[in-house]
Amino acid sequence: MKKSLVLAMAMALGVTASAYAANPFSDVPAGHWAYDSISKLAAAGVIEGYGDDTFRGDRLMTRYEMAQIVARAMAKGANVDKLAAEFADELDKLNVRVAALEKKSDNVKITGEIRYHYKYSKKKSDVMDSNKLHENGLRTRLYFTGKVNDNWKYVGRIQNIQMFHNDEEPGVNHTGEDGNTDFNIAKLEGRLGGVNVVAGRDDDVFVKGYIYDGEHDAIKLSYGDKWYVSGAYGKLTDANEDGSFFKDLVGVSKKFYTAEIGSNIDESFVNGRVGYFKADLTDEAKNVTDGNLGIFYVGADFNVAKDLALEATYLRANKDKFGAVESKKDGYVFGLGYRGAEISKPGTWGLTAKYYRQGRGTYLAHTIDGDTDFKSGFKGWSFGGEVTVAKNMLLSATYYDTKALKGEHDDNAETKVLWTEFNVVF
Question: Of 125, 243, 335, 417, which sees the most CB atoms within 10 A?
């Protein structure tokens, strides 16, 4: 039965005797009458052997096995009408079985990213001479995406951080604890009617990370595409767990709310957004901020020229004093970007430059890798570049120079940071 099938498939696919020289099966010698046909069919993916690299050509096949080979040949465009008619029932049943199997195999996808970073920082203040610090480590993330149905999916993330060297004292550095493995994303994403929904623990940014960048337990809704309205309600878990609001204050936010309207129009000269972010704080945090924290913001992105983009964001907090420390209510961020690296396209690159001036009430956990942990807020600038060195491999470096905003306490703290990364995605 296998002999006739090989001949039929070879004729249907138009095998030529000299087109294929080698075949992957150890039990089909070069002088065998079906050597060339088997080589062609194996190369085309029509036939497969066994796990021990054998073809076992003398073994009798079941009709289901033959129907599977016919189905593969048909997918390759072979003219197998007679064989298709002969095995019509089996092909019908096989198609159902294969479709179900393919659906199962695609139901859960695993992707990941690996990041190595090196950080050099130089700190000084009124009470401390210049202090040079070094840090480097490896962060690994695995994402599990499971399809629930055509409109919903589940996303989970496991993260491990290994610190190879860290000069900073415990509790100051929030890059991650050495050796910890956490299950730190668990969310459902989908649509209810025309509304996009994300519910669960996520790791995301608010206002490009100028207010908050980190994990949170929340439900987030958005409606619209080119013009949109969005909102979120939940708890800022990072702010509660690592003291990112003030390094000596753990347990900050009981809940938060945010609402935003804006535009996201491709090829438009300008896209904008306006919104409000409110954090209901714990009693301990309220003693520092004299109440809950509210931040109004407005921002715009301008496509100034080809490959050149300008951004501007203004933030306004409802507090100008944190305990005994005076802080500005206002915050400003201006950025300029040229080109931009695409991690899937080797050789692409980009440059960015930004200026920051934010009172302490305008951010809780800032996105930058420079120092923002000043009690009065901070001002400063950054400059960086990135390049895709190979497909799915990105190298970047950014230099930050940040200082404390001066208040009644006349804080002269300043930090210079060089942050480099090598990212690999798969």
Answer: 417
The pLDDT tens digits for 133-173 are 899 999 999 999 999 998 999 999 999 999 998 776 444 44
Yes or no: say if 381 and 354 are a contact pair by the CB < 8 Å rule. Answer: yes
Q: What is the pLDDT of residues 17-35, one digit of tens each?
A: 444 446 677 777 877 777 7
C-alpha distances (whole Å) from 125 to each of 28, 360, 376, 378, 400 are 78, 18, 13, 13, 17
Q: Which CATH number fits domain 111-425: 2.40.160.10, 1.10.8.60, 3.10.20.30, 2.60.40.10?
A: 2.40.160.10
| Per-residue pLDDT reduced to its tens digit, 210-239 | 999 989 999 999 999 999 999 999 998 866
Cα separation values, 361 from 86, 231, 247, 405, Å = 76, 21, 15, 12
Residues in CB range of 193: below 8 A, 6 or more apart: none
Instruction: Give residue limits of the domains in the chain.
Output: 2-103, 111-425
Q: What is the DSSP string of 94-105?
A: HHHHHHHHHHHH
